[in-house]
From TrEMBL:
<dbReference type="InterPro" id="IPR036388">
    <property type="entry name" value="WH-like_DNA-bd_sf"/>
</dbReference>
<dbReference type="InterPro" id="IPR049874">
    <property type="entry name" value="ROK_cs"/>
</dbReference>
<dbReference type="GO" id="GO:0042732">
    <property type="term" value="P:D-xylose metabolic process"/>
</dbReference>
<dbReference type="InterPro" id="IPR000600">
    <property type="entry name" value="ROK"/>
</dbReference>
<dbReference type="Pfam" id="PF00480">
    <property type="entry name" value="ROK"/>
</dbReference>
<dbReference type="InterPro" id="IPR036390">
    <property type="entry name" value="WH_DNA-bd_sf"/>
</dbReference>
<protein>
    <submittedName>
        <fullName>ROK family transcriptional regulator</fullName>
    </submittedName>
</protein>
<keyword id="KW-0859">Xylose metabolism</keyword>
<keyword id="KW-0119">Carbohydrate metabolism</keyword>
<comment type="similarity">
    <text>Belongs to the ROK (NagC/XylR) family.</text>
</comment>
<comment type="function">
    <text>Transcriptional repressor of xylose-utilizing enzymes.</text>
</comment>
<dbReference type="InterPro" id="IPR043129">
    <property type="entry name" value="ATPase_NBD"/>
</dbReference>
Length: 385
């Protein structure tokens, strides 16, 4: 295979930059050893990274680390650029503006709405305008806008959204408005990428997002596994009950018709004769000992354990992360879920609540934009989220 000098140089630059990010601070001599490049190459690459203001010469290091002269330590400039990240759901739009190291400058949300093809551009532009008011000057400005979609996205084209209608060419419409890169991705995939990049020490992560529907994002070594046409991880459309409740996808008995947050709300509204149930109501009544709510959520944990079992058997991840506003506030439900993982292949699979909580998808958007900006696909950072 023939590689151009430009490609090799670009790859070496990404390798050096990733090493600086992962080590927090490092000398040129240490970079040479770690990256397997000669000192002249390291010197040339770090010179360019300094000129691009992607790294800093931070301080004088300890000579004992490598012998000889005291080295100048290099650190990543996480404030070199900004990213915009939006989560566009059927009933809300959330967004944040952050530095490329994940430090959030400002976040906002619009709730109690019904997103559709008719108004989605209005909501997105309104959110971007609000976030951009809090942008600060950086060497590279705003590098990208990532929009999370609650549905099937293939090559950044919207293919199917079961709970709302969006234009398939939303990306191209946004690219006509904004000068920076625009990315579209499934929200569960972004939640998994957010967990991998900012929240987890594991190299193999499955993140199950439970909202109006249910999806699973799969990340291995920093790369999303989306499968053919982006269908991998659509666990919400696996069959829980054959010939069961009809699903907008065309199947009957899909998992998300029984185990999504929307399914919980609908079931409790019927049993309690109480309209307008949401996650706050569910959590409050559970903690007050409401037997109907407690039984419903224990049943939900059982349903989700079936999905986790299937994911564990198929992908065998290092970690399964549950991204749910209900489970994050009722941690004992996770133990109920774990206790139902009894099979030889799934028993002992680590299952945790998201450390990023409701921001996992938004941080995934930051990660996707930053990965592309820096040309680093296995990017990992630590933030105080």
């Amino acid at each position: 295979m023939i590689h151009s000098k430009y490609t090799i140089r670009e790859n070496n630059e990404a390798t050096i930059l990733n090493a600086i990010i992962s080590q927090k601070e490092i000398s040129r001599a240490e970079l040479s050893v770690l990256a397997g490049l000669n000192k002249a190459s390291v010197s040339a690459i770090t010179k360019k990274l300094l000129e691009d203001e992607l790294i800093h010469e931070d301080r004088i290091g300890d000579a004992a680390r490598i012998g000889g002269r005291k080295p100048i330590m290099l650190t990543f400039n996480g404030k070199a650029a900004l990213t915009l990240s939006l989560d566009v759901a059927p009933n809300y739009v959330e967004g944040l503006i952050a530095y490329i190291d994940g430090k959030v400058l400002y976040e906002s949300e619009i709730r109690g709405i019904k997103v559709s093809s008719d108004n989605v551009l209005t909501y997105i532009t309104e959110m971007v305008e609000k976030l951009s008011e809090h942008a600060v000057e950086t060497p590279h400005g705003i590098t990208g806008l990532c929009v999370a979609i609650h549905g099937l996205v293939t090559q950044e084209e919207i293919i199917f959204t079961p709970n709302y209608t969006l234009p398939s060419d939303l990306k191209s419409q946004l690219e006509e408005i904004y000068p920076f890169y625009v990315y579209l991705e499934n929200e569960a995939n972004l939640a998994a990428l957010g967990e991998y990049t900012f929240g987890s020490i594991s190299d193999s992560v499955v993140s199950m997002s439970i909202h109006t529907g249910i999806g699973a994002g799969i990340v291995e070594n920093g790369k999303l596994r989306t499968g053919k046409k982006g269908i991998a991880g659509e666990i919400g459309h696996s069959i829980l009950y054959p010939d069961g409740r009809k699903c907008p996808c065309g199947n009957e008995g899909c998992l998300e018709q029984y185990a999504s947050h929307q399914a919980i709300y609908s079931e409790l509204e019927q049993m309690l004769a109480l309209p307008g149930i949401n996650s706050s109501v569910v959590i409050e009544r559970y903690k007050k000992g409401d037997p109907v709510v407690q039984k419903t959520l224990r049943t939900n944990a059982h349903y989700l354990s079936i999905a986790v079992n299937n994911l564990a058997v198929i992908y065998k991840p290092d970690l399964v992360v549950i991204n749910s506003s209900i489970y994050s506030q009722i941690p004992e439900l996770l133990q109920v879920l774990r206790n139902n993982l009894k099979g030889k292949f799934s028993h002992g699979t680590p299952v945790v609540s998201s450390s990023l909580k409701r921001k996992a998808t938004l941080f995934g958007g930051v990660a996707k934009s930053t990965q592309n900006f820096l040309n680093i696909q296995n990017l990992k950072m630590n933030i105080d989220s």
